[in-house]
């Protein structure tokens, strides 16, 4: 679990990253979860967009993704959300 200070630091870092995944009308499937796990291992901090035709809110999508991947939610804003998971092999982001 992240402290509010760590979350604020990650939010600041997330401002400069691009959205690399989208959740659409198919929702959050196993294929997307596997891609997210791979991306989290490589990047640690990722931004995801929930499309208008999705059958869930960005908050719901964030909760589902975080539970399935073991990631920590950083922020949900508008149609996007940011999640963080420390890399097991190559941690790069300092969150203190």
Number of domains: 1
Overall form: globular
Topology order in helix (H) and strand (E) letters: HEHEHEE
CATH C-level name: Alpha Beta
Helix content: 25-40%
* Cα-based radius of gyration, to the nearest Å: 12 Å
**Mind summarizing the main beta sheet?**
4 strands, mixed
Structural class: alpha+beta
CATH superfamily caption:
YhbY-like
CATH topology label:
Translation Initiation Factor IF3
What is the correct CATH architecture?
2-Layer Sandwich
Number of strands: 4
Tally of helical segments = 3
Mean pLDDT, to the nearest integer, reads 95
Low-confidence stretches: none
Overview of the molecule:
It is a single chain. The chain has 96 residues and is an alpha+beta fold. It has one domain: YhbY-like (Translation Initiation Factor IF3, 2-Layer Sandwich). Helix content is 39%, strand content 23%. The protein has helices at 4-14, 30-43, 58-69; strands at 19-23, 45-50, 72-77, 80-84. A four-stranded mixed beta sheet has the order 1-2-4-3, sandwiched between helices. The longest helix has 14 residues, at 30-43. It is globular. The model has no long low-confidence stretch (mean pLDDT 95).
Describe the structure concisely:
This protein is an alpha+beta fold and 96 residues long. Helix content is 39%, strand content 23%.
Secondary structure blueprint with pairings:
Elements: H1 4-14, E1 19-23, H2 30-43, E2 45-50, H3 58-69, E3 72-77, E4 80-84
Parallel strand pairs: 1-2
Antiparallel strand pairs: 2-4, 3-4
């Amino acid at each position: 679990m992240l402290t509010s200070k760590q979350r604020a630091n990650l939010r600041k870092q997330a401002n400069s990253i691009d959205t690399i995944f989208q959740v659409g009308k198919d929702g959050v499937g196993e294929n997307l979860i596997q891609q997210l796990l791979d991306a989290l291992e490589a990047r640690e901090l990722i931004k995801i967009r929930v499309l208008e035709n999705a059958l869930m809110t960005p908050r719901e999508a964030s909760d589902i993704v975080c539970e399935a991947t073991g990631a920590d939610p950083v922020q949900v804003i508008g149609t996007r959300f940011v999640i963080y998971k420390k890399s097991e092999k190559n941690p790069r982001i300092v969150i203190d």
